[in-house]
Write a structure and sequence with these properties.
There is one protein chain. By secondary structure, the chain is an alpha/beta fold. It has two domains: about 100 residues, no CATH class; about 210 residues, Rossmann fold, CATH 3.40.50. It has eleven helices and eleven strands. Strands 3-2-4-11-10-9-8-7-1-5-6 form an eleven-stranded mixed β-sheet, with helices on both faces. Strand 9 and strand 10 form a beta hairpin. Helix 1 runs antiparallel to helix 2, helix 4 crosses helix 6 and helix 10 packs parallel to helix 11. It binds S-adenosylmethionine. S-adenosylmethionine binds next to strand 5 and helix 10.
Length: about 325
């Protein structure tokens, strides 16, 4: 990566003063840039920093850990020693960073996106349905009926995990939800019961974000207790196969959240075709979140078979959601 590309990345990491500083440390150091360029998977900086975070989180008395708010209650302020500690730690763990960089992906899974997804499910008018997610990561969105919610004055559900969103538009319209099979499709499914997968998802979070960390842990615990079927592989191939396994005539909600941007146009067309085919025999309600980005918001779109329409704009991590008043 060039210093310019690293600086451009740092602009998106403003919520993490530690990562902004560390990206500057990397850009100024040819040895660290060499390690960064050796990270096989993309985006390289996210993966390098998460790899370091994961290795530190395994437990160490290395001084570098003392700068991470996720690893200590009283983090050391960023100072002139940070660069040296980081450089030494990365070079000492270069082989492990390369292994993580070739085997792990940025699969951040944010349960609070369900503040947009569940109301979209309600818009389907379906009370009983199977639920399929394209790009499910660890499957947190497939547990959307197992969380508690608050959008302004509207509350729904009982759960140890409360997901709260600033609601700026129309109120969500709750209705009963009975989910049959829950099926996640992912090229690399993560297991909410697997300690290493959990550690990786935590390592992907910015160190300075305790709310996201506790939300992730709670959502992983809830998801781990559900019967979720994870299907490994390219969803453009597995979706038609999976839809064929569902009992004839029964409705299905197929959703994707911050995933379509990772697919090729051919893969996206194959998904559309699979849905069109399945609609010959059953109701298929489509939900897509994260399609069109504008500042920190992105669109929530639905298609009941009559064509796609945007029904809300939502913060990319579910901090707020703005439902349009629908006719
Ligand atoms: C950014 S994550 C989003 C995870 C989750 N949907 C959410 O909203 O928190 C995108 C996920 O899509 C998966 N993915 C990318 N390409 C895929 C493909 N062709 N088929 C299935 N999953 C894919 C990735 O492995 C990753 O887990």
């Amino acid at each position: 990566m060039t210093p310019e590309a690293i600086a451009a990345w740092a602009k998106h990491a403003v919520d993490s003063p530690l990562y902004v500083r560390l990206s500057g440390v990397i850009a100024d150091d040819t040895e660290l840039v060499r390690v960064l360029d050796g990270v096989a998977n993309l985006p390289q900086l996210n993966i390098l920093l998460a790899a370091v975070h994961m290795i530190l989180a395994r437990g160490t008395d290395d001084p570098l850990a003392s700068y991470y708010a996720s690893l200590t209650d009283d983090p050391r302020p960023i100072d002139d020693d940070l660069a040296g500690h980081f450089r030494r730690f990365v070079l000492d763990h270069e082989a492990e960073v390369a292994t993580i960089g070739a085997t792990r992906y940025t699969q951040t899974n944010e349960a609070r996106r369900c503040v947009a997804l569940l109301p979209a499910v309600w818009m389907s008018g379906l009370d009983r349905f199977h639920l399929v997610e394209i790009g499910a990561s660890a499957g947190l969105n497939l547990a959307l009926d197992r969380y508690r919610y608050r959008w302004g004055d509207v509350e729904w559900g009982t759960s140890p995990l409360l997901l709260e969103a600033g609601s700026r538009g129309a109120d969500p319209q709750p209705r009963p939800v009975a989910v049959g099979r829950r099926i996640g499709l992912d090229v690399n499914p993560l297991d909410p019961r697997d300690p290493d997968d959990r550690a990786w998802l935590e390592a992907l979070l910015w160190p300075e974000d305790p709310d996201r960390r506790s939300r992730l842990r709670a959502a992983l615990d809830i998801t781990a207790g559900l019967d979720i079927e994870m299907v490994a592989g390219d969803a453009s191939i597995t979706l038609p196969e999976v839809l064929d396994t569902l009992p004839a005539g029964e409705p299905v909600v197929v959703m994707d959240s911050f995933t379509l941007n990772q697919l090729t146009p051919e893969q996206r067309s194959a998904l559309e075709e699979a849905v069109a085919d399945a609609r010959r025999d059953r109701d298929v309600f489509r939900i897509s979140l994260g399609q069109r980005w504008r500042d920190d918001g992105s669109s929530l779109d639905i298609d009941d078979g009559t064509g796609w329409r945007q029904v809300a704009e939502a913060h990319h991590h579910g901090r707020w959601v703005d439902f349009y008043v629908l006719p």
